[in-house]
Amino acid sequence: MVRARHVHWHKALKWLALSGLVIVLDQVSKQMIASAFKVGEGLRMTSFFDLVFVFNRGAAFSFLSDAGGWQRWFFIVLALAVSSWITYMLIRHAEENLLSAALALVLGGALGNVIDRALHGAVVDFLSFHLADYYWPAFNVADSAISLGVALMLWQQLVQEKPAR
Questions:
Q1: Would the pLDDT of 145 be above 50?
Q2: What is the pTM of this model?
């Protein structure tokens, strides 16, 4: 018989607060860029880093960016569905610190980008790294949180003790 896992709502609140912090940092940083630059403008900060103001209508690496508009709603619905599942998992596993931190970062990042899609029809990207003439696709705080969250999940899977058989 499988026992139901006890849910500790109060322990999940700190992880939901982390998601909220990611959303706030993401949206504030995007507002600062939007107030300082016009779309398409940029500022060279170092020999390998620029601040830019671009819209990405697609997903990671501009996937589906030229799909004609339907992708806006597709990505909003997909992100909200995944965010619902992540919230469920976050509440269910609130006592597992590394996993919960990872899920909270992914949740905050996903919702930060959903806000952009809902408001602008695209995600605001502004961090642009490059080496000579090779440019990595521009990204934002939400994307960074998602990437860090996924890396933490992978790390957790690698270091987690496996049950003896």
A1: yes
A2: 0.84
